[in-house]
Known about the structure:
Blueprint lengths: L12 H14 L3 H11 L15 H18 L15 H6 L2 H17 L3 H31 L1
Helix pairs in contact: 1-2, 3-5
Pfam families: LisH (PF08513)
InterPro entries: Ebi-like, LisH
Main location: nucleus
Amino acid sequence: MNTSNNSHRSLTSEVVNYLIYRYLQESGFTHTAFSFGSESAVTKINIDPNNVPPGSLVTFIQKGLQYLEMEANVDAEGEIEGEYHMISPEELITNDIDQLRQMIQDRKEVERSRPTQGSERKRKKEDRESRDKERDQVVREKEGSKEG
Length: 148
C-alpha cells in the first residue's frame, strides 16, 4: 500500500480509515461505506486503490494479532522457552501484553505439572508388569504347594 511520502512513517488514522472504508465496500456495506467515506473524507486521501489488495484490513489485523501472540510467547531474551502456545483472537484483543505473557506462563506451569503422555504410558506399563509378576508368583506358589 503506497501513500505519498507516508511509506516509512507510522500508521495514520487516515490510512486506517481508508482500510475500513475499503473493508465496508468489499463486504457489501455500500451505504455504510458511502456514509463513512463522506464523514471521514477518506475519498480525498492520496491512496491509489489499485495498490491496496482486497482484504487488506483483515490481513493487517491478523498479522497484528500474530505479532502480539508471538510477543507474548517470547521471554526477556527474545527466545521461546518450551512449546509455542496459541492464543485465541478473543484473548488477544481483551488482554494487554503483560496479561498475555502471564497466561502463557500459567499454561506452561500446567503442562509442567501434568505428566507427559510418554511417562503416563510408562507408568501404566510398569503397573501391568508388576501385576503380571504378582500373578505369576501366585501361580508358581500354588503349583509348588500342589507338588509338595
